[in-house]
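Data card: per-record layout.
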Amino acid sequence: MIYSIEKKQFDDIATWMIPTQETKLPSVLKGVFFMDGNPAPDDCITMYNLEWDEQNYTLSLPVYAPLQWTFEDSILGKILLRLVQLSKLTYKIQFTDASLKKAQVIPFAFGIEIPLWLINATMQQDENSPNGDTWQRKNIWLSIIPRFADYTLRRIVDEQGHYTPAFQDMLTKVQKECLVIVD
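The structure for this 183-residue chain is written out next.
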């Protein structure tokens, strides 16, 4: 299914990128996160509305699902959005243990797992951010190219729906509007 696309304003992201169903998502993963430094034409994500596998410390994040991901309102952003929809791009976030401080991020396209030798993506909670406001996203491409497309995930909306100090900084780094997939 291909959902519709709408333009949304970043300055009120806390009003539309929200939880719509109760899940067992841990607090450290709740809120809206900005992909600070991401060279791709996408900006924010939320892990709300997704089922948390508390026994395996795993979350499946469908990038193509409604209101899970924001894309730049540009030609490259539109191309990426359509590729995400077509491939049904999904990330499996597999944490190493109950501390939820380190995870392997495994992409799936067309239902097929992308092998680690092609992209080894990880996320690690910043040690100065015990509540999960900051995460380092690292990549190793083709098993030999490190640090290409690395970025920092910064929580810009907390689980109570309040903007964090990182929100104003995010607004200076993104366009005023973004594209999102909606029902």
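Known properties of this structure: The chain is about 15% helix and 40% strand. The chain has a mean pLDDT of 95.

See the next section for split statistics.
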